[in-house]
Write a structure and sequence with these properties.
2-enoyl-CoA Hydratase, Chain A, domain 1; 6-stranded mixed beta sheet; alpha/beta; 11 helices; 49% helix; binds coenzyme A; Lyase 2-enoyl-coa Hydratase, Chain  A, domain 2; 4-stranded mixed beta sheet; 10 strands
Length: 259
């Protein structure tokens, strides 16, 4: 794969997608977004990939949209850019495998919005989060006003979106924006530990859980419960369900095959 703006590595079932525009703190432009999309599609298509991690560098996960580009843009530019952002984000959030954002340094604007598309967010102690768009005369355009309140609730989300101020990792954990905060030096190991645990779990059940939760948000409870019921019942047709329950009864560790 010929990617310039992201590094892409697959290792023992985990795909590591690392933003690679360090001189601009991984600011998002169409080149970065298209490379990210290519890497995501590769993860989608490769059965050997079980867990996907997106990460930046120590100083920055991603600082958001490229302000140099945006400063020259008009309404048409904004529509084209946000169409691309929304397309890539949809691919990421619909990826039928667990995704983890490994966040160190700045996760701002579109960077935070990408992290919100992941299933889990593991943060380094040096991480800084924010949606500073309001300070630039705009609003978040990559799902920030939609996904953030759904995740952390309207109260902290309003403060972040209205004030555009940054918060540290500790506060992010307090409001439920991230799952765990670890020292920067332990970030990769911690993410690998999460990935290893996820790979021990039955892949089809993980996929079903992801679909049930994501589809269920934003629809009436009754419809969500119907989705859950269908997926729950479907799993009784899998080998992994037989294995999981037999292993329990036989007092041994289950070995799942993803079938
Ligand atoms: N778009 C484009 N370039 C950006 C950028 C962005 N969102 N954020 C940082 N950069 C560039 C800077 O222009 C600078 O490039 P240069 O060296 O060619 O001048 C480089 O990245 C380093 O940034 P700098 O501001 O010098 O680093 P810093 O450590 O002093 O500050 C931040 C870091 C993140 C606090 C600051 O860069 C910032 O506020 N960025 C904007 C964040 C933002 O508003 N994001 C939302 C966009 S919608």
């Amino acid at each position: 794969m010929d990617l310039k703006c992201v590094n892409f590595r697959k290792e023992d079932g985990v795909a590591w997608i690392q933003f690679n525009r360090p001189d601009k703190l991984n600011a998002l432009n169409p080149d970065v977004l298209k490379d990210l999309e290519t890497a995501i599609v590769c993860c989608e298509e490769d059965d050997a990939v079980r867990v996907v991690v997106i990460m930046g560098h120590e100083k920055a996960f991603v600082v958001g949209g490229d302000i140099h580009d945006m400063s020259k843009g008009d309404i048409n530019f904004a529509y084209d850019l946000s169409d691309l952002v929304l397309r890539v984000q949809e691919r990421l959030s619909d990826l039928p495998k667990p995704t983890i954002a490994a966040i160190s340094g700045y996760a701002l604007g579109g960077g935070l919005e990408l992290a919100l598309c992941c299933d889990l967010r593991i943060s380094a102690e040096n991480a800084v989060f924010g949606l500073p768009e309001i300070t630039l005369g705009i609003i978040p355009g990559g799902g920030g006003t939609q996904r953030l309140p759904r995740l952390v609730g309207i109260c902290p989300a309003t403060e972040l979106i209205f004030l555009g101020e940054m918060i540290k990792a500790e506060r992010a954990k307090e409001i439920g924006l991230v799952n765990k905060v670890v020292p920067f030096g332990s970030l990769k190991d911690e993410v690998q530990a999460y990935a290893s645990k996820l790979m021990e779990r039955p892949a089809l059940a993980l996929r079903a859980a992801k679909i049930a939760m994501r589809r269920g948000l934003g629809i009436p409870l009754k419809e969500g419960l119907q989705i859950e019921q269908n997926l729950f019942c479907m799993l009784f047709g899998t080998e992994d369900q037989k294995e999981g329950m037999s292993a329990f009864l036989e007092k041994r560790k289950a070995v799942y095959t993803g079938k």
